Amino acid sequence: MTWSFTESAAAFRAAAAGHLAADPARNTAVLTLMDTAARLGWWEEADGRVTGVLAVSPPGVPAFGAVTEEAARALVLPGGEQPTEARGETAAVEAYAEATGRPWAPTVRMRLFRLGEPTPPDPAPAGRARLATGADVPLVAAWTREFAVAIGDEPAEDYAGFVGERISEGRLWLWEGPDGRPASMAAVSRTIEGQARVHLVYTPPAERGRGYAAGVTEAVSRAAAASGAAQVLLFTDLANPTSNALYQRLGYRPVTDHLGVTFTPVTR
Question: What are 43's strand-pairing partners?
Answer without folding.
Answer: 3, 52
